[in-house]
């Protein structure tokens, strides 16, 4: 069975590459990421907005030089990501966390150009340290725009009772002298029409504050490089917002959009067994190597595979950890799986290796990059016992 996604996978990740890598591994395409960055740069050129890479979704220093040619910097979630952004990406570093300790903030100050606080109390507690640093740091507040259309509660930052952002009423009567900008984040893998509605709610609640500010950060979750995304609507929305508010600076900080379709996960069948259903044991683990498969949950596409019962042979794909639920899902294949067969899981650059663990002593996957256009396959890193041992006391 041939699908458009399978055709894309064969083009971007040729079998000549997927057969040569050691498994399990992530294989990241430089060519796809470069193409995504070209689309993002169109947005920057048309709107004047600055786009940042969200390190929480993709943090691979080996590919930072490629991305930094286009994007203006990174957004970090604390001192460790901020240091990575400063030392390896080398452009603007914007840092936000729900709260900072004094020690964390001291490090964040060293590495950040923008620091965003989640509450007035946090800003008041730490603004003296920022002033005393002698560094020119832009300070912002995360606000809750009061509108979100994220369907999965786990990923909805604007649910009632959310710990993220200050509601509009929370800024009534607050002296914002020293605040340079506002930040909101309310999207998750969504199109520009959702941003239009979120932005309308944001302006209704916070628009009166904008004349005194330098910038607004529209957060992440913009699926800009997805097929069918309405680029024209996004550009019109950002451009019109800037016109309404005296050319105020706008930032976007997507993660997925930078690396969408830019990586695969290659794994090998180790054994097949039967227990009321045929089961294939792989040399990987959903629990440790792709935890979002269990957390969301979702079913990753596998090249050449179908839904259960769609093709001749159906298997449950299981991992190698001791967790009973370490299962990727049920898939069908045109031929029986045998030990040594390789499976290629799609769209595994985002929220994958940044979430990996060594639970159960499961080895971390190797990291490769490739460029079919240049006929180049590069082993970035392989992991072993020292990486497991160094994380233990």
What do these coordinates show?
- The protein has 393 residues and is α/β, with parallel strands linked by helices.
- The protein has 13 helices and 16 strands.
- Strands 1, 10, 11, 12, 13, 14, 15 and 16 form an 8-stranded mixed β-sheet that branches. An 8-stranded parallel β-barrel has the order 2-3-4-5-6-7-8-9, surrounded by 4 helices.
- Helix 5 (79-89) runs parallel beside helix 6 (102-111).
- Major sheet summary line: 8 strands, mixed
* Helical content class: 25-40%
Radius of gyration: 22 Å
Overall mean pLDDT stands at: 96
Number of beta strands: 16
Oligomeric grouping of the chains? single chain
Low-confidence stretches: none
DSSP helical segment count: 13
Order of helices and strands: HHEHEHEHEHEHEEHEHEHEEHHEEEEEH
What structural class is derived from the secondary structure elements?
alpha/beta
Shape: globular
Strand content: 15-25%
The span between the termini is 50 Å
Kindly summarize this structure in a few lines.
The chain is of the alpha/beta class and 393 residues long. The protein has 13 helices and 16 strands.
Offer a few descriptive terms.
13 helices, 30% helix, 16 strands, globular, 393 residues, alpha/beta, eight-stranded parallel β-barrel
What is the secondary structure topology, with strand pairs?
Elements: H1 4-12, H2 15-18, E1 25-29, H3 30-47, E2 50-54, H4 64-68, E3 73-76, H5 79-89, E4 92-96, H6 102-111, E5 114-117, H7 120-133, E6 138-142, E7 181-183, H8 192-206, E8 215-217, H9 231-244, E9 249-252, H10 256-259, E10 263-274, E11 278-282, H11 286-289, H12 292-295, E12 313-318, E13 327-333, E14 342-345, E15 366-371, E16 376-381, H13 385-389
Parallel strand pairs: 1-15, 2-3, 2-9, 3-4, 4-5, 5-6, 6-7, 7-8, 8-9, 11-12
Antiparallel strand pairs: 1-10, 10-11, 10-14, 12-13, 15-16
């Amino acid at each position: 069975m041939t699908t458009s996604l399978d055709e894309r996978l064969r083009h971007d990740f040729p079998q000549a590459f997927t057969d040569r890598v050691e498994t399990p591994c992530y294989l990241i395409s430089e060519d796809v990421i470069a193409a995504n960055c070209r689309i993002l740069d169109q947005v920057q050129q048309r709107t004047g907005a600055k786009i940042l890479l969200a390190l929480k979704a993709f943090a691979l220093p080996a590919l930072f030089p490629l991305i930094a040619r286009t994007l203006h910097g990174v957004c970090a979630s604390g001192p460790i990501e901020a240091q990575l952004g400063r030392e390896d990406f080398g452009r603007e570093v914007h840092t936000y966390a729900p709260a900072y300790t004094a020690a964390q903030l001291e490090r964040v100050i060293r590495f950040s150009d923008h620091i965003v606080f989640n509450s007035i109390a946090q800003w008041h507690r730490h603004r003296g340290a920022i002033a005393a640093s002698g560094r020119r740091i832009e300070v912002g507040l995360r606000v809750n725009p009061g509108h979100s259309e994220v369907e999965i509660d786990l990923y909805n930052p604007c649910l009632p009772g959310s710990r993220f952002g200050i509601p509009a009423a929370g800024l009534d009567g607050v002296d914002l002298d020293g605040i340079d900008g506002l930040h909101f984040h309310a999207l998750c893998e969504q199109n520009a029409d959702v941003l239009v509605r979120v932005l309308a709610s944001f302006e209704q609640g916070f628009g009166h504050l904008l004349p005194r500010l330098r910038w607004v950060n529209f957060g992440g979750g913009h699926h800009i490089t997805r097929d069918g995304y309405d680029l024209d609507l996004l550009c019109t929305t950002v451009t019109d917002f800037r016109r309404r508010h005296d050319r105020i600076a706008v930032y976007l900080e997507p993660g997925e959009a930078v690396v969408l379709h830019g990586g695969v996960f290659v794994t090998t069948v180790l054994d097949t067994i039967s227990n009321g259903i045929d089961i294939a044991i792989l040399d990987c683990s959903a629990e440790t190597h792709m935890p979002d498969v269990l957390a969301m949950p979702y079913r990753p596409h596998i090249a050449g595979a179908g839904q259960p019962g769609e093709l001749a042979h159906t298997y449950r794909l299981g991992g190698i950890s001791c967790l009973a639920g370490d299962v990727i899902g049920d898939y069908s294949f045109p031929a029986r799986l045998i030990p040594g067969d390789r499976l290629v899981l799609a769209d595994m650059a985002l929220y994958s290796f940044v979430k990996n663990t060594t639970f159960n002593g499961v080895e971390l996957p190797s990291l490769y990059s490739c460029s079919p256009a240049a006929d180049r396959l590069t082993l970035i890193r392989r992991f072993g016992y020292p990486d497991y041992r160094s994380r233990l006391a």
